[in-house]
Structure formats: C-alpha cells, structure tokens
Amino acid sequence: MEDSTIALDHIANLILTAPSRELYHASIAWFEKLGFKSIMTESSVETTATWMQLFSSSASIHDTSLKIVYASSGAKKLPISAKMDWRSMPAVATITTNTLKAIETLFASLPWSYQRYSVPSKNGSGNGDFSAIYTHDPMNNLLIFTDKPNPFEAPKRQNQHAHDHEDASSEPAMASITRSATTSKRRKIAILTSGGDAPGMNAAVRGVVRAAITRGCDAYAVHEGYQGLVDGGDMIKKMGWDDVQGYLSTGGTVIGTARCKAFRERPGRLLAARNLVREGIDALVVCGGDGSLTGADLFRSEWPSLLEELVKTNELTSEEAEKYAHLNIVGLVGSIDNDMSSTDITIGAVTCLHRICESIDSISSTASSHSRAFVVEVMGRHCGWLALMAGIATGADFIFIPERPPSGENWRDNMCAEIKAHRDLGKRKTIVIVCEGAIDSNLNPITSKDMMDLLTDRLHLDTRMTILGHVQRGGKPCAFDRNLATMQGVEAVEAVLASKPGIPSPMIGMNENKITRTDLMKAVALTGEVAKAIGRKDFIGAMELRDPAFNQQFDQFSAISTATSVNESAEPNKNSLRIGIINVGAPAGGMNAAVRAAVRYARNRGHVPFGIHNGFPGLMAGLFKELKWMDVDGWIAHGGSELGTNRDQPSLDLGMVSYQLQKFNIQSLILVGGFEAYTACLEMSNARNVYPAFCMPMVHIPATISNNVPGTEFSLGCDTSLNAIMDACDAIKQSATASRKRVFVVEVHGGKSGFLAVMSGLAVGATSVYIPEEGINLARLQKDVRHLCQRYGEDAEGKSQGRVIIRSESASKTYSTDIVSAIIKEEGHQQFDSRTAILGHIQQGNSPSPLDRVRATRFAVCAIDFLESHIEHDATNGPTVYTKDPSSIAVAGIQGSKVSFTSVEELLKDTDMKNRKPIQTWWMDYKRTGNLLARRMDLL
C-alpha cells in the first residue's frame, strides 16, 4: 500500500480544545484510531494537555503533530447535523491520503458519521478526478480526508524510491500511517542532582525533562539527591513541560541535593530500588561529582540482586521485577572543580571561575589603593583548574595547585624573589592564589595563612587573606554552563534510549568542543588516579591526567607572570625581534588581555614589542610606542581596546603602511581583531611582491563578538558578548513576565553570522531565533504567531510567562525588528503584547569574561611562539625575518582543545567572503536543540 501524506492546513501542528474531560479522553481515543500516537501528557490544576504524533514511514513526508487540550473554560461546539451538506462548513484540517478507499472502509466499520463527495475532472478524462470524505471528531471539529494532490506538498526526497517499491498489499487500512506508531512501553526517566551543587545543574534538569517529554517518555525529578530515592513518595515527582520554566537562570539546584548515608549501605539501596520500580522508572540520570556517579554505577551493578531480594521479601512481585529487570544509568558531571577525567570541562566550573574573577577584580582595586598583598584561597581539593584559570584570568603574581607544587626546598625564596621583582617594576598590588588542596613537593599542605605570614614577614607587605568559600558556588550560571548543561542533558536522554543491557553506563562529557559519551566507571577510575599520582609524588603523571590544555596553560602562566629575568633598561640583544601589535576591527572583550600577554611574553623572551595605536590609520601616521612590562599592567580586566581600533584597511595606503613598518624596523606583526584583520592580512600577503616590508611573519589573533573569523571555533569577545546578551535577556524576560502576556523581540549583533543569536537563544530559552543563515519569511512568522497563541492559550490565568524572540541584525532586510514585533502584536489579538529591545553596543560587554581572558592569553603566547618559528637565526647578524612563505601569514585558531595556525591563503577556500564568515559552522546543532527545548516541533 502506498504511504499516506498528512497535511494539516500546511502547518506543522494543530491544537484542539476540549471543554470537558469526557470529550478530552474521547478525542484522544478517536485520533488514536486514525493512527496518532500519544507522545506526552502534561497536567496542571487548570488544564491537561496531550501531544499526539502521526508518524510517517516515508522519508518525504514530515510527521504531523496534534495537541488536545482540556480546559474547562473552552467553548463547546454545536453538534454537526447529518442532514447538512458539510462542504459548506469550515474544517479545522484537510488530510491528503492515497488510501481514501481503505479509509472509508475503516470509517464504515466504526460508529462514525461521514459524508463522501466526488469531483470529476474538468476535461472529463478521469485523470483529475478526486474524492473527499468529511467527518468530525467527538468535539465536533470537522475534518476532510481527500485524495486530491496537495499543491503545497514538498517534493520527494532523493531516497524516496526506497519506499516506492515496498510491497504492503497485505496491510490493513491505515497501516501505512500507523506503521511507525507501534505500541511500545513508555519509558520513564528520572533525574537527580547529588553532591555539591554546581551552577548549571538546573539547566541540565530542564534539558533532561524536556528532551524526555519530546521523545515520548515520562520525566521525573528525584528531590534531595539519593535521599529522595531512599525516601520515595513525594520525593519522586513527575515533571511537566512548564515545571522547569525559569530553570535556566537559576543557580544551585531547584530539586535539591543532600548527602545520604543510607544510600551508601545496601538496605538504603534496596529502598531506592523498590521506590523506582513502584514508580515504573527504569532509567536514572545522575548529575554530580565522581562520588555521586560511583554510587550510581554501583546501584546499577547491584540492580538484579536488589530486585531478587525485594521479591523474596514480598516488597515486589516477580512480574514487577521481570518488567524492570534492567536499570539504565547515565552520568552528567556537575562539579565546580572541573576534576573529572575524560571530559575537558564540567558543569559549573566556568561559572565558578566567573565568581572567582569577579571577587579578585574587586579585591584588586583595594589592593592597588593600599599597595597591599592579598592571598586568595579558592576551591579544589585535588584539582587546581580553578586556581590556574583564575591566575591567568586575573593576572595573579603566583599560584599554588596540587598537581604542580613549587619545586625545590627553597621555593619560598623563589616566590618572594618573583614578587619582589614585580614590586621593583612598579606594581602596587600582589595577588597570590592558593588552591585549597595545595601542597609542596613533599606533600605538606600549603595554607593561605602560611602564605600571608610569609609575605608579611619576608617582604614586609601589608597582607590580607580572603577565603572565597561557597560564594564560588553561588549566583546564576553563565552562558557557557547553561549551554553545556542543556546540550548534555539532551544527550543524556538519547543515551538512555540507546542503552542496552550489558553496555557500561555512559558519562556525558565534552571533548574537543563536542558532546561525547564515555565509559562512566573508566572516567571515575582515571579521576581517582590523579589523587593517587599526587600521593606518590608523580606530579608529571598527575598533570598528564588532566585535560590536554592544562599542562600547556600552566607553563604559559609561568612564562608571562615571571619578571625576574626582565631588564628593560638593557639594550636588546642580537636575537631580539621588534614585534608590532595592532588592533583591527570593532572592539571585543579580550583584546587588551591578548596585547598584555603578548607584551609580557615577548619581554620575557628578550623581544621588543611595539603598540600601534588607532589601527591602520595610526600605523600610517607613525603612532608606534614601545610597550614595557608595566605599561600593560591591569589590562587583562579592561574591556574595549587600549590601543584603539577601527575597521580601516591597509589598502588605504599600502605604500605608507610599508614605509612606517620599515621606519620602525618592525620584523613581525600581530593583528588582534575580527574579519577586518583577516582581510588586512590577505591584502598584505598579496602585496608582498611589491612591498618587501610585508615579507615578514604575521599572525592574526581572532577577536570579534560575531565569531565569524575562519579557522577558529571561538574568537575573543564572543563569550563576553554572549554573557552580556544573556544578562540583558534575563532582565528583559523578568520584565516581560512581570507584565504577564508580553513578547520581546530582541535584536543582537553578529553581521551575517547567526552565532550570537543561536547561542544566546539557547542560553535564555528563546521561543524563536531568526538568523541570516535561514532568513525570515511570512510562513515562518505565521508559525511563530501560532506557537505563541498556543503557548499563551495554555498558560494558567494570571501565570503567563514573558517570552523572548532573538533576531540577528541581518536576518532579513524586509522583516526588521520593529516589523516583526508589530506583526506579532497585531496577530496576537490582545492575547499578548509585543515590544522590541535593540541591545546595540552593550553587547560588546564591560570587563572581558574569564574564558575570553584565558583564551586571549593562550592565543598571545602561541602567537609569539609562531613568530619565532618563522625566524632564521644568524650567529653574527641576528634574526633574519625576510620570508614569502604563505604559511608565515596565518590565523591563530582554537580547534577543539588545541591552538592551531592556518595560512590566510589556505583559509580562502573555507571562507564566504561576500558574507564575511566561514562556510562551515559547528554551532547549528545548538539551534536544533534550542527549537526542541522551546517546544518548536514545527521547526525541527
């Protein structure tokens, strides 16, 4: 039998409202006979709603969604008289099918009223004949089934022929519609948060709940961690779609976490198993640290014996035990310490880094005012990630971490010498960061109090100690943690559905900027190896067990923070390079941090860095200044561009650019900027045959909030901008919610790249996101209006939520932000209001985010190494810098966990020069997830 095509008024879903529970349940049963499958149900005091899906077995046909809502306030429709001609009445849906005769047979076998009409072709040939069957559901909604071809039907996909040859002649009527709607056991997936709370846990809960519901599963939340499993009852609650509303911007864990001694013993795990089986739950997502995940895997390994014991004690029946014979466990790592192996980053770590940097930035101003030293203690019992990243991001003078203790017995003398060198150069403040698990090479603890006393007694500094404590866990999650936790939560549900008995429990992580699944217990075991390596003084092994960048970044911190070898009054040696540093393009968070790191690393390597002010116009005017170690002090926390920046290109006057570079004897060049810096590199590369001054190594450090530079997954400034947009949208959403039924259309920057719109939309839970890659058309606006009408129609009276739509500034020339808002307001028919918010240059942010500071430092140090690698040294004449090698002009890029360099010429094939962005983007999958979690089935 040929497949049936379903088209509901050419929209993706239909909403029907039942005024009574009897009609609600009768309508669900009625549509189930047509092949619709119930995929999720939500209940509240005022309403109950069931989503149904008509699955198509053909690749050319989209599945069709239907929502049946019970609302006591709904209007009851008048009965449809069988004596009337139903063709004169409005229908709620037209269903096009190739099996009309078989469907009529089905209708005739059921106590359903229907009318059939045939329409002959206009030319009488019979080729255009079609028929239509009119019927109505229990709520008296009229539907039309017809074999008339749908003029709006999408063309068949390339793989459609695989279905055209199916032999289904023996299938009963409607079987082609219901083939995919098989009756399988509805999965019940529970999530719990355990151990120390971490920002982003709520985003993970939201991701799991909504992904589970979308995949046709029931979602449950276990409150108070493992204690909730042991206690059962009201501690295990079924979750609806709107139960996780507002979770994204909330810190900690709404569902609670607690230490549970009972679960550590078998009797406690017996109670937990009994409670799960009684709720029908056979899949558990655990978000916590290594201890929580170890307990979860132990629970899974004991599951068969636990059920067997429960049957023997008559706590469960043998049928229940057989039905839930297997327990699926999936781990999400929620840990502010970032101490789990097999993942590059854990949920909560970046937000914790935000809190630390905010605190140290605040401390820095008072420390500088009084010329004080501050010893700051941060969390991290066996992992120094927080201390290391905070040290880089705040420009600390010294750090102590457990994986890399200070070497030698005289490390106190070395530290004091380093800090004295900083003071001799003119620094008024001293910041020392101590990880709570810091030790020396003999495994003796290094405490904050010891360091405070050392600085006071040895260097006679006015020293204060600050233990940040639990302030590090607090506050709302940053954009990175929201998106990480959301994506991992969705992946956890997919891992549950893909799991099979005998397969090890997976842990969801992130490696090389990709969401991954790894063996949970192998990851836990590797994590334990770090502490063991430290215990046996194998510090090299401990460093290797951390993520790939950890070791490199520690060396980079040491390279830029040392000042004992800096002698700025001495003449440059014969191997010194004269390095020009210029900002090009719009300001971006992290530009100053990159210049600072480049200057200090260059100085420590014996080179002479020059700052070029005001971009290429400043270069042409000869605005060069030699930058010394203290000239860039404090720049790491400064937003904007201290050197000054603009979008002008060297093509304004290539001859003058060449002249000034020769005049100041610049031997290599670092360009920190956006797409304009990339095109500037191209122009100078193409002019090498004419201007020998350009025959030197150049490196472009990408810095633009649009993140549209080819050759890198992240540019400096994009994370700062995402957090600025997120903060603004959180405030806007709060206002919209307070005003009840209001939609804000928020315009964001990004040029022709939708990166900011997509990633901020996911971070704030936007209802819809418009990006240049997809554009805006009337059909899309109609879908959005229908969706908004549906969502506001479902909101309980007086409890309507504010909603946000993100629009990229270049999404459409026709449908501007104001026009989109006006259309939404007009079509809302007073059901909801609409306002606009054009964020403008506030998106460039204030102080750079910690991630942008860390990335800037990493880029800059690697850039200096890149320049040195293209220099030929001569024992007599010093460095030779003349080169025409295309690889000597390159873009520095973050690819996964590594920094790579790709020549500007090689990147041309991967660049859309017209739209000023890379051809391939890695972040479009995030948009699909955003649509999924905004319940936009019509956009999937």
UniProtKB/TrEMBL annotation:
Entry-linked InterPro entries: 6-Pfructokinase_euk, ATP_PFK, Glyas_Bleomycin-R_OHBP_Dase, Phosphofructokinase_CS, Phosphofructokinase_dom, PKF_sf
Sequence positions that bind Mg(2+): D290
Keyword Repeat found: no
Regulation: Allosterically activated by ADP, AMP, or fructose 2,6-bisphosphate, and allosterically inhibited by ATP or citrate.
Residue ranges, annotated region (N-terminal catalytic PFK domain 1): 1-562
Active-site feature positions: D337 (proton acceptor)
Domain Phosphofructokinase: 188-496, 578-867
Subunit comment: Homotetramer.
Family to which this protein belongs: Belongs to the phosphofructokinase type A (PFKA) family. ATP-dependent PFK group I subfamily. Eukaryotic two domain clade 'E' sub-subfamily. Belongs to the phosphofructokinase type A (PFKA) family. ATP-dependent PFK group I subfamily. Eukaryotic two domain clade "E" sub-subfamily.
The protein's name in its UniProt record: ATP-dependent 6-phosphofructokinase
Gene coding for it: PFK1
